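Entry for the shared binder. Reason: the reviewer on the internal report wants the predicted structure included alongside the sequence.
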Amino acid sequence: MLKIDKILKLGEIPSTQTLAKEISSIFPKENILIAAATQTQGKGQYDRKWSSNLGGLYFTLLLRPSKMADLSVLPYQTGKALARTLESMYDLKTKIKLPNDVLALNGKTYKKIAGILIETQCTEKDLNLLLVGVGVNVNNKLPAGLAATSIKQIKKSARNIDALLENFLKNFAEEYLLWQNSI
């Protein structure tokens, strides 16, 4: 079971991922969820900018794994948990684009609906800190020309962001346990 010790829900911040790194030493043992309504400097893979307008789901899980497992599979397992959540809650057809994107069928084409960013701090023997960052286009307006979609665009109505987060956390907990036990 994945235990979250603290939940921080914030308005506008630069980045949930950056804040997680900054507070990790203040809370050296806690698993923390940091969510933001908007991010001014949302991050994607390879330091790409992630558009984080109001209406999306943007969060980072700051985790303290009990064991070191294969980190290369964690983005896929996180994507799998998110895809399962989107399929069960909204009846979306999804697929995972490795290494870190979730796509949803919008019309006749699959478009990016979510991104995942995994970062770590570790020693030779121990994984001290695991950051699982997730951004999901829910009700947010997307920049023109972006090959992406949102749940609202596909379903033609706004959706509850808190319900999405809650259901994702349940699905992610299962995948996280599998990942922890894969050693």
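Summary line for the report: The radius of gyration is 16 Å.
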